[in-house]
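ok so for the tutorial part 2 we go from a plain amino acid sequence to predicted structure tokens. step 1 is just haveing the sequence, like this:
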Amino acid sequence: MTIESGSSAGDIHNVKRRKLLQLAAAGLVGLTVPPLATAGRAGALPIGVDSIRLLVPELWADPPRPPDHTPVIVIGSGFGASAAALRLAQAGTDVTVLERGLRWPRDPRREIFTADMTADGRGLWRQTSFTNITGLPVGPVDYFGGVLDTTRYENLSVWRAAAVGGGSVVYTGVTIAPDRRYFDLSFGGRLGYDEMERTWYPKARSMLLPSIMPADIYNSPSFTHSRVWDDHARRAGFTPEPVDGNWNWNVVRDEISGHSRPSATVGASTFGNSNGAKHDLTQNYIPQAEATGRARVCHSHEVASIGTESSGRYRVEVRRLSPEGEVLEIRTLTCDKLVLGAGSIGTTELLMRAQATGALANLNEFVGRGWGTNGDATMTRSLGPIAAVSQASPCASRITDETNLPLTVENWYVPGVPTDLGFLASLGMTIDPLRADFRFDTATDSMSLSWPKGGSRETVESLRAVNNRMAQAGRTVVSAEPFTRDVDDTFTAHPLGGAVLGDVTDSYGRVKGHPGLYVVDGALIPGSTGAANPSLTITALAERNIAKIIADGE
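step 2 — the prediction. this is what the tokens look like for a chain of 554 residues:
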């Protein structure tokens, strides 16, 4: 939408607000390009578990059964866990991977995953409602084992994955290393940048295969918002830099040409990409681990607790789940070595529960500390000159700024909004010193988080300054009220910390006081990966740590 001469931005803003409200009331918010095939999807939510079964019958296949004892158990299947599982299997060790979520197929023509704003149970992990980035409610939906778990603490919501492939299924695909100066600010000497840059970042990249967006895709209609965003950034005095994305650009081209059902090009990402456009871990680390014949990935197996036996073996209490969340079986598994890769929240909770109950008696006082959000916040502007096309989800570029807190801002998309409203979105990440601690309540068997009300004023104000600058340069209106704020830090998709490197563990993720117990995920990161998306750093750090553990024969 363009702003016509003779009309004020305020007048147009009011018109568009009324239009948005009308569309929302009519149930039209979130409509995108129609699919090539719908498999008879119901038009109202919830759609019913029978409809989900019709759409994705593979989800009801029996999961592999884990052995009673395995030399190594890996909990989780995200970036760190998958890297550890592959390297241990390649080293000749039998590995059982326990993943609470389902294993999702890929198909270029079928609706495997759900859309962002018309989400059903496939999108949400055991939840019946959800508030999207736009601030619009989603639901009610069927109670089901969907891919996104929004864990709610007082003052903060944490987005994390529940699926084979972990966070790689639900993230936006940006796969980059932080700048050296930002890395050092975040890690504070716990980890050397030279080693990571020389060896481990390249190793992780060789597996994940990230690359910048090709010019023909960048110039296609679905990326109009990306080009407008870059233009506004340049007008504001910033220099957009291309970012590496973990996307199969040929699949994106298939969408553009009509040879694949639209997914990435219509803003699908938060709940997965049906056609495999996002090059997630189910297309690299995980199948390579399974191909060794030594790694078994057992989906639908949720770990309830960990501990040790008198024999010295580790004990893992696990529940086998149906897709609907019913507990079908409870078992106790054992292993000689236990690798925690359940993500910052999952790993921290298992350690804190074990500490509180005495199941792991030698854990130190640092468990549950040093947790942060990577300085995350979303930023929204409205009334930009956007053509009436869908906003694609792959990120094209980012900018940096050090006027206040050091930060990066990524060229993002607005999921699920009508295409002619001219919304523009950014994802900001700051190097914010704010850290929080977890507490575990044995009476309720749950964790709480000491996150302050209002989050971090420094992060919000630093990102607001950049957002305002770009809004002024692009003649857009800050925020997209009444649905979302200009800067929103009430959620994070990058939970980091809780078992921080050098505190809970040694410098290679080995848990102090418990030989054979390792942490390989975002729990190791001290709250920030240097104003960059954490996926590459988590993967590279896992590669580094597991190589040392294998080399030492531990």
